[in-house]
Amino acid sequence: MLLILLVFIMMGAACGGESSSGQTSFKEEKDKPGKSANSETFNFKAGHSLTEDHPYHIGLTQIAENVKERTDGKINIQVFPLSQLGAERELTEALTLGTADMSISSTAPIANFYPEIGNLPFLFESREHAYKVLDGEIGHNLLGGLEDVGIVGLAWGENGFRHMTNAKKPIEKPEDLNGLKIRTQESPIHLDAFTALGAKPAPMAWTEALTVQPCSMESWMRRRIPSL
Q: Signal peptide: which range, if any (predicted)?
């Protein structure tokens, strides 16, 4: 079964945050005669696409609290849920531009900017297999390579198992996907994979999928497809 190892925390590599004055950097303030950089506060924006009770939001909020405590209130992270700073693809672009500072995102939208991170469906045999790969050399190299596109990867996470869901019929074998219109993440690899399986994939952000008709989105009926 496909394991989604898609929770990905990132910080813009070139972005230093906004100081309380909004005009000068930490280094510039530090170098001013008679001015201590320790008196400055810095504000960062962290975004994600889901609700305030989702683990994405809870995790970012915990990070913000820990950072504020350990810096004696000098670094503040404001968390924006529900795509307020953009959906995952837009958020990733915002990191590269410096208009957002942090996010948690699926790997699929990131592949539009960093193709090496595109996750292949049904790649891992188990949760333990996935952890072994991503906590090892391969995972560390993938995180390090993000710096080439102006992003610093902080950690891998997990969002559970991927299920084939729809409002038409049970999906119990690959052939059941023939002709089925199904929402996928915004990833060329996902589009190619589900097209090869005979489905008609439609890429869209999850927040957009919730507004379309049930025949073209994931229903809450959970059915798993066997490993390929």
A: 1-16
